[in-house]
Amino acid sequence: MDKTYASAGDAVADVGDGATLAVGGFGLCGVPIVLIQALLERGSTNLQTVSNNCGVDGAGLGLLLEAGRISRTIGSYVGENREFARQYLGGELEVELTPQGTLAERLRAGGAGIPAFYTLAGVGTLIADGGLPWRYDQSGNVAVASPPKEVRVFGGQEYVLEEGIVTDFALVRAAKGDRHGNLIYDASARNFNPLCATAGRVTIAEVEQLVEPGELDPEQVHTPGVFVQRIIEVGEGGKQIERRTVRARAEQSSR
User: Fold this and answer.
1) C-alpha 233: how far from chain center
2) What does the pLDDT look like over 191-234, one tens digit per residue?
3) Distance CA 91, CA 215 (A)
4) Scanning 119, 136, 170, 250, which has its CA 20 to 30 A from the CA of 226?
5) Are strands 151-154 and 116-119 parallel, antiparallel or unpaired?
6) pTM of the model
7) For 1-115+164-255, CATH number?
8) Rounded to an integer, what distance in angstroms lies between the CA atom of residue 241 and that of residue 97?
9) Domain boundaries in the chain?
10) What sign does the dihedral 154-96-198-189 (CA atoms) show?
11) Phi and psi at residue 116, in whole multiples of 5°?
């Protein structure tokens, strides 16, 4: 089955208002920037995202955030984004903070058809006991707080129950893919992409290089095509880094 689409706009054409999205990437590494831009241009709003972080100011999911298109997000890291902090503290954005490993496992569990699991992470904290501020009002008061979660004892140790995550759509980026939707990620750009790819009911992949079926070594495929419904080729351009840090060359610093 050929799953290729002519453009990113065509691939996200049915992502409507209120849709839930699992979005791959870590910082700005492995982020589906072309699909995010297409979603911005489409105008979908009231989106609920699940991603390690919500981009940075002016890039990644930060573009949708700045446009006021995201109403709720689940993530584990919120640094590097002043607009995120402003919207959260100002009562415009609902935020469910989740330990990073727990977030990864919630996505994996959802993709594997596992409704919930128990974990040590968060036991004895507000993660388990409830009370984390999810949303503030405009006066700075907590309007919505996290509920308490079930805690059970196994082998004398307490564990907290966490629910798997399944979303309407998933947006991911890969280095290579074929027309059947098989994907290969490059090094650290793999990050949350394989997990998000399995968690979406409809997974849309942008790939830097599109090849014909049979050209990918099956042993190297990270996401099998059964999890991917749509794929577009975007090339290698447009990738960004969060912060450029350089130092003088050794011969220069010795002068």
Assistant:
1) 20
2) 999 999 999 999 999 999 999 999 999 999 999 999 999 999 99
3) 50
4) 119
5) unpaired
6) 0.92
7) 3.40.1080.10
8) 24
9) 1-115+164-255
10) negative
11) -165, 165
